Amino acid sequence: MSKEAKKVERKKYTLAKPHTHRGEDLQPGAEVELTASQAEFIKDKLAGTTKAEGNAPAQPEG
Hints:
mainly beta, two-stranded antiparallel ribbon, elongated, DUF7210 domain-containing protein, DUF7210
């Protein structure tokens, strides 16, 4: 019995703060493609989100 790989949806987000993504140092304004759980993990570094928003979901670009 084989398992099929599950396609995980990724969306583009714009960074508001510097961040290392996949080993690459990125600056504010750079775009990254993230899963919802990845975006939640770094939401304080994404444009349109702040630490003060607490558990608010990160906003994807576009």
